[in-house]
Amino acid sequence: MIDTHCHLDATEFDVDRDAVFAQAIEAGVTKIVVPSVERANFGAVASLCREHTQCRATYGIHPMYVDRAQESDLDALRTMLKNEPAIAVGEIGLDRFVEPRDEVKQHFYFVEQLKIAKEFDLPIVLHVRRAVDAVLKELRRMKLCGGIAHAFNGSRQQAEEFTKLGFVLGFGGAMTFTRALHIRELAARLPIETIVLETDAPDISPHWLNGSRNSPDQLPQIAQTLAELRAVSVAEIISATSKNAIRALPRLAALH
For 2-254, CATH number? Predict the structure, then answer.
């Protein structure tokens, strides 16, 4: 199984990170994508991925962190991509949920990081909360090599637009809630070729954790939920979503 979005470097894991990683591997999660969110944690993500070879880094400036970003951070991002193994640029995008927010600054850093992804010929890991159309608008303007729209919660039509542009869609703990009717319908009905699994740990906990810290070892049960929604075997889900993840992030294939 591949967890395509897990912030294993987060402070919530400082007390037991090695144990959390070991539990994930024991549960069958053999590959973990660890996105950075700002320049300040580039080094932590790089160190984590050097120590745990099943982890792979993506580097980027998250839209919720742009208020403390500086333009020199873009040069730092280029330096990381040159000097450290990276499978994507991310987590980048737009967020139209959090208040207050600086939409102009979000847009600036998003577009500049799209340019960097194109420069390095890397896919991207996208944050698109309540900003799907705005993100799609920029992606159409700049031809990239695809990636993942993390925590997807858009419409069926928006999903189709992402897939036309070479993206797959991340589903995780949110679809385990029976009240999440829209997300569950998407998970059940979208072509399986468009779906990857994620935890977004320590966030977006599945319903059985009752709001406590999420962790990558929850991915098998999340996969089971998707299998039940689609009325197929969990083995089919694991096989398909793993292939999709490697198609979207080709450098994952180098993991052994």
Answer: 3.20.20.140
